[in-house]
Amino acid sequence: MLCEKCQERNATVHYTEIVNGQKREMHLCEECAREEQVGSFSFSPQLNLHHFLAGLMGPETGRTFIPGNQLQCRACGLTEREFRRTGLLGCAECYEQFSSWLKPLLRRIHGTVRHTGKIPERTGGQSKQRRELQRLKQELQAAVSQERFEEAAKLRDRIRELEKQMEQGGE
Amino acid sequence: MGLRENITNPFSKWMDGNAPEADVVISSRVRLARNLASFPFPHQLSKEKANEIIHALQLAINNKKTRAAVGPMELARLAELTPVERQILVEKHLISPDLLKTREEETRALVVSGDEIVSIMVNEEDHLRLQCLLPGLQLEEAARICALLDDALEQTLDYAFSEKLGYLTACPTNVGTGMRVSVMVHLPGLVINGGIKELLAFIPKVGLTVRGLYGEGTEAAGNLFQISNQVTLGRSEEEIVSGLGTVTEQVIARERQARQQLYRYRRDALEDRVWRAYGTLRYARLLTGDETMKLLSDVRLGVNLGFLKGPTPRLLNELIVLTRPAYITKMAGKDVPPAYRDSLRAKLVREKLKDLPE
Ligand SMILES: [Zn+2]
Ligand SMILES: [Zn+2]
């Protein structure tokens, strides 16, 4: 197959772009691909992920979208339409502002909308304690249901202690 | 050695052939996406704000804790590097091609450690992309180093973080852990015996993606593939790392089995293929980029199977990077036309292999 840009060399870089649900295949030679920056070594595992996202967001998701009543982020001004075009949010606040349609999208991508990974030490606030509290409460429930009462008492004490700590440290 | 001299040196630590499972896994990479709270994401960022981020990061990398965690690192703005130097950084896997897709070269930067194991892209899609790149299969170690760097930076930088969604990123596909782990694997055995098709179909089913490093699908030049995680939210960092690790071990086992079978049942054909490749690399006068990748793959297979003794895995890794267009251009000192490039490439490969034993 010849490169579709220069029509000279063999096409060795093949990739698919999805823009607004429309699939488009590109076949380029190494040199032209480099110029086009569809680069051989890319950090993101999926080339053109953003177009892919935009495709995922497309009209077929069945959301009600009222033109003229476009959602806009109060913090950075990004509109929903811009996100659909680029696949990129504008700021951290966007996650809050657009949560109504972001949540279903996140669920489609990740299968969940709940972070269970690392929490930053300094700026994570009480997240760590809250997660620990949740874990302890689950353990307590298990201990009670299995009639391990001595352990349950210990867990209850730790929960109280942690709750007190959080109250004092809370805003 | 300064960052710019380092760039010109074709060797990066990840090319060290002496690493765990290096007969199949060339390198392991962990990348973390991080953004700073109260700054819009890079594509919405003013020049002034973007500069503030570079300054904040400069301070953070000079911080004692950061230096203790990952050693000294150097920051350079994209604008300080020539186009060829930038491209070399891409070919050494230290930055993404996306970092170069910009007219805002004043406000994009990169940070690299002396051994090039650790690097940070600044103001690409996210404010920061922390990366650790190690030779062979070393995902846990790469994750550990990334976490150290992340903890150290967090001492002075306020990250955009939400309790529910984790680390907030410009693209929702990275939100949560912001973690992308990947391995670069060499799979000539599976490509030759056709097992690669099954693998390409299987990997997406377990939440991972696979793609050819040069080219797509089964036509990946040089039989090099990258496997990485797709999901970043709802899983812990440990789960993401061990998920890819487990699949990679299966891939290694299948690839080794394929090689052994080929060697046992099609020995003459396989040896012939390897020796022809070696001969061509040593004597050819014109080599295209793709042909070189293919020949290097064959030679590597012979080295891995133990019957070809000359070239070391490290040299073969270096040659992958050296024979890409950016290095050839760097050598020639000007923008060379493709045809002349092929002649330069062949010359370079001949030089590198000429003193090796048969
Ligand atoms: Zn072309
Ligand atoms: Zn916003």
Which features would summarize this protein structure in a list?
heterodimer, A: 171 residues, mainly alpha, 3 domains, 7 helices, 46% helix, B: 358 residues, Creatine Kinase, Chain A, domain 2, 2 domains, eight-stranded antiparallel sheet, 47% helix, binds zinc ion
How does this model look, in words?
Chain A is mainly α and 171 residues long. Chain A has three domains: 1-46, no CATH class; 49-110, no CATH class; 121-168. Chain A has helices at 30-36, 49-57, 80-86, 94-97, 99-110, 127-145, 149-169; strands at residues 13-19, 22-28. In chain A, a hairpin with a 2-residue loop joins strand 1 (13-19) and strand 2. In chain A, helix 2 crosses helix 3 and helix 6 packs antiparallel against helix 7. The longest helix of chain A is centred in the C-terminal third of the chain and has 21 residues, at 149-169. The radius of gyration of chain A is 25 Å and the shape is elongated. Mean pLDDT of chain A is 75; it is low at 38-48 and 58-69. Chain B has 358 residues and is of the alpha+beta class. Chain B has two domains: 3-258, Creatine Kinase, Chain A, domain 2 (2-Layer Sandwich), CATH 3.30.590; 266-353, no CATH class. Chain B is built from 14 helices and ten strands. Chain B has helices spanning 3-8, 47-62, 64-70, 83-91, 97-100, 139-154, 188-193, 195-202, 237-265, 267-283, 289-305, 313-322, 325-332, 338-353, and strands at residues 25-34, 73-77, 109-113, 118-122, 128-135, 161-162, 166-167, 179-186, 208-212, 224-229. In chain B, the strands form two sheets. An eight-stranded antiparallel sheet of chain B has the order 2-3-4-5-1-8-10-9, covered by helices on one side. In chain B, helix 3 (64-70) runs antiparallel to helix 6 (139-154) and helix 4 (83-91) runs antiparallel to helix 13 (325-332). The longest helix of chain B is centred in the C-terminal third of the chain and has 29 residues, at 237-265. Chain B starts with a helix and ends in a 5-residue tail after the last helix. The model of chain B has no long low-confidence stretch (mean pLDDT 92). The chains are: A mainly alpha (171), B alpha+beta (358). Chains A and B meet through strand 1, helix 1, helix 2 and helix 5 of A and helix 4, helix 5, helix 6, strand 6 and strand 7 of B. One zinc ion binds at residues 3, 5-6, 8-9, 28-29, 31-32 of chain A.
